[in-house]
Amino acid sequence: MIGNFDFDVIRRALPYLFFEGMRFTLTLTALSAFGGLVFGTLIAMMRLSGYRLLARVAGLYVDFIRSLPLVLVIFWFYFLVPYIGQWLTGASRPISVGAFASSLITFIAFESAYFSEIMRAGIQSISRGQPAAANALGLTYGQTMRYVVLPQAFRNMLPVLLTQTIVLFQDTSLVYVLSITDFLGAASKVAQRDGRLVEMYLFAALVYFVISSIASIGVRRLQARISIVR
Amino acid sequence: MIEINHVDKWYGPSFQALKDCTTSVTKGEVVVVCGPSGSGKSTLIKCVNALEPIQGGEIILDGIKVNDPKTDLPKLRSRVGMVFQHFELFPHLRIIDNLCLAQEKVLGRKHEEALAKGKKLLDRVGLTEHATKFPAQLSGGQQQRVAIARALAMDPIAMLFDEPTSALDPEMISEVLDVMVDLARDGMTMMVVTHEMGFANKVADRVIFMDRGEIVEDAKKTDFFGKPRSDRAQKFLSKILQH
């Protein structure tokens, strides 16, 4: 098998794989992580707000999202969002959102549920004396969160957030169900076209492995540094 | 300055932390609150700036009712300094930024102004050279002095101290008490929860003794140390003063 392993197929596909595929994968990962962090933080604050209704809504959302398979939601969302858009705007035909927007919304919805659990743990890890001290100085709830609690929660949870982002990086490959050209999708297209399944899928695996491993090592170093500072 | 009238506080339906507490602190007065642990003294002082809500009675701070839902609590709190048992400096901010944060965000001071004020107060507590360090790099006593400076940076009309030396190693207690004694002699209105009877003896005008959520004694310092009227206060004093 190794004897007729065609490295040239990979070499020729490289620009396509990285400039099209990997660029899409990284863009989707970064935007989803950012959106997930923002909304996840909001959901975490809702759950810890002390307003029972807000906490309940946020809790139900997280439980709901976490009990669904991601790939199902990606698929389902892609076909549903046009109809929701139609319903919201009252248009006569389903609104086309495009595969990228649809998958981005799905991933943000999903990741915000996971990130919210991480941020919730982060916020709860801050001793109650910290917000008390901030309040005693006259800071409002919003200021206390923004300047005192969230920066500390974020710093404490940074390694976990990044680890979750590495998982997200791998999960973005699930957009293949929408025939999107992410990195895996690009590799898969070349594989089908040239009939070089072994080469392309092995190479794709290798790339995911290398990137994720390097990122993991980076996270571990960061973790060591943070624990010294604290 | 601080009026506490018939205050009741409950934790849940079954535990009453404060029972009909009435006392007051006038301008420039230094009042020490003491009593065995669990007697409600920390709870009482936290009620003064509404860090803990009360269920009955009223607390009036500089003419403003603290437990009125219409009161702008952040604004009111910004006028009263508070020092905590565990310092509660913000660990992610440098010392100088700990002093500037509330000045800028609450009082709206310009950064240069806040910085100048912060430096002046760091100098006052003798920690100028630590301005750019993080709290974790300072000793407990130094952190507590920073916490006092942070509260003073807001130009408070009164200061509340919640067991400021209880979490400190013995050799660091006096550096914090020295700052507090200075403050008292400058005429600051102070309410201090502490077991440091030496401090009480030196600068307090009045001593309040609490037990099981009640104010048992509320007397001039000389009267209190002379001859406490209640058995419970006498017992408490004999226990902490015998060493």
Key phrases:
heterodimer, A: 230 residues, mainly alpha, MetI-like fold, 8 helices, 81% helix, 0% strand, B: 243 residues, alpha/beta, Rossmann fold, six-stranded mixed beta sheet, four-stranded antiparallel beta sheet, 9 helices, 38% helix, 25% strand
3D architecture notes:
The complex is a heterodimer of chains A (230) and B (243). Chain A has 230 residues and is an all-alpha fold. Chain A has a single domain, classed as MetI-like (MetI-like fold), CATH 1.10.3720. Helix content of chain A is 81%, strand content 0%. Chain A has helices at residues 7-47, 52-66, 70-89, 99-124, 129-136, 141-171, 183-194, 197-229. In chain A, helix 3 packs across helix 4 and helix 7 packs antiparallel against helix 8 (197-229). The radius of gyration of chain A is 21 Å and the shape is flat. The model of chain A has no long low-confidence stretch (mean pLDDT 90). By secondary structure, chain B is α/β, with parallel strands linked by helices. Chain B has one domain: P-loop containing nucleotide triphosphate hydrolases (Rossmann fold, 3-Layer(aba) Sandwich). Helices cover 38% and strands 25% of the residues of chain B. Chain B has helices at residues 41-48, 73-78, 95-105, 111-124, 140-152, 170-185, 197-203, 221-226, 231-241; strands at 2-11, 15-25, 30-34, 56-61, 64-65, 80-83, 158-162, 190-193, 206-211, 214-220. In chain B, helix 3 (95-105) runs parallel beside helix 5 (140-152). The longest helix of chain B has 16 residues, at 170-185. The model of chain B has no long low-confidence stretch (mean pLDDT 92). At the A-B interface, helix 5 and helix 6 of A face helix 2, strand 6, helix 3 and helix 5 of B.
Number of domains of chain A: 1
Biggest interface, which chains?
A: A-B, 20 and 29 residues
Strand order of the largest sheet of chain B: 6-7-8-3-9-10
> Which secondary-structure class do the elements of chain A indicate?
mainly alpha
Mean pLDDT of chain A: 90
Extract low-pLDDT stretches of chain B: none
Here the CATH topology of chain A equals MetI-like fold
